[in-house]
Amino acid sequence: MLDQDAAAAGRLTDDAAIGLLATTFPDEMVVAAIDATGKRERRNRALPARLMVYLSMALWLDFGKSYVRVLRNLLRGLRWARGGWDGYVVPTDGAISRARERLGSAPMQVLFEATAKPTVPVAHAEVFWRDLLKVV
């Protein structure tokens, strides 16, 4: 049986990871990417595009877990980081899959292009190996 403190600490680190995700990609940036790609929904949905962008990123944090489980963790982390989302009913895997299909990859590409950058300045000698730029 797992130690209760270890389980609680694991949940806190998950919440902190989602908080970091939400800080790195603030709502304004996510909404701008959705608008720039024309993916804003025309009606209120149980799975709005903004939530689906965060879910797409959270799937990499909880790699190999089901959509529903990752969405539950995401919502818990967003509540911890920002508040809100109380009383939200998590839809089925099928509904999440359809919402991801509606969103597509364009907003994710816009966010990647806006934020991706080298972590080490190119001027550092250790960035290169045999004239190739290393990925760090």
Any key phrases for this structure?
single chain; 136 residues; mainly alpha; two-stranded antiparallel ribbon; 6 helices; 2 strands; 60% helix; globular; disordered N terminus
Structural summary, described in words:
- The protein is 60% helix and 3% strand.
- The chain contains six helices and two strands.
- It has a two-stranded antiparallel sheet.
- A hairpin with a 2-residue loop joins strand 1 and strand 2 (132-133).
- The protein is globular.
Short description:
This protein is mainly α. The protein has one domain (4-133).
For the sheet with most strands, the description reads: 2 strands, antiparallel
The structural domain count equals 1
Indicate the structural class: mainly alpha
Strand content: under 5%
**Low-confidence segments:** 1-9
- How are the strands of the biggest sheet laid out side by side? 1-2
> Span from first to last CA?
37 Å
* Helical percentage: 55-70%
